[in-house]
Amino acid sequence: MLPFNIVGTGPGSWDLLTLKACQIITSSQIIIGSPRSIKTIEFLFQDSKTQPEIYFLQRNHENIPGLIRQRGQKKLSVLVSGDPGFYSLLGYLAQHFEAREIQVCPGISSIQAAAANLTMGWQNSLFFSVHGREIPKDISAIKTGFAQGKQIFVLLDSQKNPSCFADMLKQRNFPVKQSHFTLFYNLGYENQKIIHSTYSNLKSCIQEESLCLMLLSKGTII
Ligand SMILES: C[S@@+](CC[C@H](N)C(=O)[O-])C[C@H]1O[C@@H](n2cnc3c(N)ncnc32)[C@H](O)[C@@H]1O
Q1: 30: domain range?
Q2: Is 104 strand, coil or helix?
Q3: Nearest alpha carbon to residue 78 among 125, 116, 24
């Protein structure tokens, strides 16, 4: 059986898809993805006579392995935002399938898009995610990294806006008042917004219903 594909679709706008991702997607007969990922790739099938079978993912990840196993000889792609290897479905699917059954197509991560917007190198940064997960009780690695001058990227979600997340950091004795916050909303989309803030101003910077990535740094990056 052909391996199935896990394709990174980038931050979400069509022009940040890679050519390889487009080739794999247009040759797929079955596509599984969130409504957001499907929207990103819709344009690829606009003038096409053949349309793929599409399965929308909401929070029903547990259905994916079954769908993949039923694909028969059809070419199947699972779409994930950003890069598949960064806080994404690759880890989950790798628990259900052998490596030889999976082909990964890398994508541009939201981190890459954010750093590029600030003309910033990101090799010395630390990363963590509270997307769909709780902030860890022990954040000593982050505190140490920050004290050493590292920048810290954090993936947020709709339940944890930048202000409530910063409050949680404060409760864990993170020096929020010495921190500069850069908020990246809807990277790559027409309504992309990048906002610089201090801790005390964060509440006024919240954009509801937006994708958000946050960067903490000791001083302004730009
Ligand atoms: C499940 S994680 C997936 C990360 C993805 N694999 C990557 O490489 O960017 C989703 C989180 O990534 C961030 N994110 C993804 N796309 C974004 C965008 N276009 N603008 C801002 N943040 C984004 C948000 O923090 C969002 O909650």
Answers
A1: 4-108
A2: strand
A3: 24
By residue count, the chain amounts to 222
**Residue owning the nearest CA to atom 27 of ligand 1:** 157
Q: Does pLDDT of 221 surpass 70?
A: no
Return the structure tokens found at 220. 């302004």
Please tell me whether residues 116 and 213 are part of one structural domain. Answer: yes
Question: How far is it, in rounded angstroms, from Cα 115 to Cα 86?
Answer: 15
- C-alpha angle with apex 83: 12 to 30, nearest 5 degrees? 75
Say yes or no: 72 and 123 in one domain: no
Distance CA 197, CA 176 (A): 11
CA of 29 from ligand 1 middle (Å) equals 26
Closest of 105, 147, 151, 148 to residue 128, by C-alpha: 151
Q: What pTM value is reported for the model?
A: 0.94
How many other CB atoms sit within 10 Å of the CB of residue 150? Answer: 15
Q: Which of 83, 108, 133 is the last residue of a domain?
A: 108
CATH number at residue 162: 3.30.950.10
CATH code of the domain in which 93 resides: 3.40.1010.10
Pocket test of ligand 1: the residue of 58, 81, 133, 157 to mutate, having most ligand atoms within 8 Å of its CB, is: 81
Average pLDDT, whole number, for the chain? Answer: 94
Amino acid at 104: V
Rounded distance from Cα 50 to ligand 1 centre (Å): 30
In the predicted structure, residue 60 carries a pLDDT above the cut 90: no
**CA-wise closest residue to 178 among 218, 142, 220:** 218
